[in-house]
Design brief:
Blueprint (H helix, E strand, L loop, with lengths): L2 E6 L6 H11 L3 E5 L1 H4 L2 H8 L7 E5 L1 H13 L4 E5 L2 H8 L8 E4 L9 E4 L2 E3 L1 H12 L3 E4 L8 E2 H5 L1
Parallel strand pairs: 1-4, 1-5, 2-3, 2-4, 5-8
Antiparallel strand pairs: 6-7, 8-9
């Protein structure tokens, strides 16, 4: 089964992903791509608390995630791949590694330099440029906080 969701969300494994998206997609595996979490066992343990019974999670660096995409797509496990920021998803997508896939933008919250695009999505110029680069890698980029919500296309996100 292919990866059922590629999502950028600062919170990684949390309620919207596990209950909202997970309830619809029924993933067996959460692939968390984050260079910092790969080396932090205690932080991994915190995220593992949010993984539903019967599912598992793995933590990969961006290069390891890119290298594992073929195996993840060929696996019988239904996977959700999560990054906390646009830059990390771009690292996974480089070299057309995610060509033909779709990336969902979830919660990227307000901070200095970011502008509100949607109530749950705040982007700065670097984020916008990186989203355009992800699209150039052959990836469809949209924003949707929950499966039943309206989907915002990349043209809207880039302004």
């Amino acid at each position: 089964m292919p990866i059922v969701l590629f999502r950028i969300d600062e919170r990684l494994i949390h309620g919207q992903v596990v209950v909202g998206w997970g309830g619809q997609l029924r993933p067996d595996l959460f692939v968390v791509v984050d260079a910092g979490l790969v080396s932090s066992e205690w932080e991994q343990e915190l995220y593992l608390l949010g993984v539903p019974e019967g599912a598992e999670a793995i933590f990969l660096s961006p290069p390891d995630a890119r290298a594992a995409l073929s195996d993840l797509k060929a696996s019988p496990k239904r996977a959700v791949l999560l990054t906390r920021d646009v830059a990390t998803m771009l690292m996974v997508a480089e070299g057309k590694a995610m060509e033909g896939e779709s990336v969902n933008l979830g919660g990227i919250h307000s901070q200095s330099g970011r502008e509100e695009v949607l109530p749950y999505l705040f982007l700065d110029e670097e984020d916008r440029q990186r989203l355009a680069e992800i699209a150039q890698e052959g990836v469809r980029v949209t924003a949707r906080d929950l499966p039943g919500s309206h989907e915002g296309p990349l043209s809207t996100l880039l302004g």
